[in-house]
Sequence to fold (400 residues):
Amino acid sequence: MTGTSPAAAGARDPAGLMGEPSASGRFGEFGGAYVPETLVGPCQELDRAFRSAWSDQAFRDELGGLLADYAGRPSPLSECLNLSHELGVRVLLKREDLNHTGSHKINNVLGQSLLARRMGKNSLVAETGAGQHGVATATAAALFGMDCVVYMGAVDMARQELNVFRMRLLGAEVRAAETGSGTLKDAVNEAMRHWVAVSESSHYCLGSVMGPHPYPWMVREFQRVIGDEARRQCAEMLDGGVPDVVVASVGGGSNAAGIFTGFVDTSAELVGVEPAGGAAVGRGTPGIVHGSRSYLLQDEWGQVQEAESISAGLDYPGVGPEHSHLAATGRAVYKQVSDDEVVEAFALLARTEGIICALECAHALAWVSRARSELQGLTVLLNLSGRGDKDVAQMMGLLG
Ligand SMILES: *Cc1c(COP(=O)(O)O)cnc(C)c1O
Fold:
């Protein structure tokens, strides 16, 4: 199995995708900043602060130091010989599961906390679904000596008791979002409401490439370290080549955006995998939620519909606006997998490679496994976004 393509720079990205959004924060017809008047100022302040920080080498160096010495970067690129043999597809894993706190979320959180400190803010507010982003934010708040409030859906709090305890142990205050379905989208609503009241002293540390401008762009830039590293690591492993396919799971879309940035200008096929029950790109229509325009699961009246997935981290009815643009331009494609396929993939990786992964990234592997006959002999780079400790109890109920 060879099948790696030469890195044809520019070959697949004639439109200069994944650069800076327009001045109004748009990626094509998606994005923008649809916020109440009280948040217009704070979003503009954040845009200015991020631009200044991101062009400041001292800021980048400090963040790079934290990512290396605190989070454990660079994360390895692992060649999966057993799995590749079984599937007939050469599979390389970008090991974000090995980061401190167990997923890619720490990359974004360290960037935003450092930015918050630079802006003179002494507290963080965040939303969380399964609790991974809340734990990462509480971790950074502890490290930087900041106060931290995390909103979590009441239903999710009951499902993810252990993460609620972790956040409290780290010194964060966890508040229940009781509205709606008591899940992630409700936690985002509450966190934004809270931010309106305290934006003077507090930074809203949003967990994915969603929300109003500048969040989708800023979070993607903080996650691009995944793609930049993987591009270098692949070049080394593949004799200067790039993989044929780059695949990642998509909830809001931050881990996918992070790895896509490293390959958008190459011949690699970019594939995002959504849960069938939360396929915003696959089954949604353009609409506005949480401050930006993107594909969205909504009913005929424009009411946001509930997403439903085996993995709480992908239980989100929307998707980051840049993914909508990548889909609309055809540069990336988005596939759907069922919960049953995900459980099978989760077990497959454990059995063949000795890696218990998060259910989120098991979605990406589920697609590779299903598409194996089209992928024979090709090289696939899969973003292993997180480790599966948090999911083991749930899987024991299904597989045990
Ligand atoms: C939160 C999470 C995701 C989904 O979020 P994205 O913004 O789509 O990356 C995926 N994998 C893991 C391990 C997560 O914790």
User: Anything to note?
Assistant: The chain has a mean pLDDT of 94. The first strand starts at residue 5 and ends at 6.
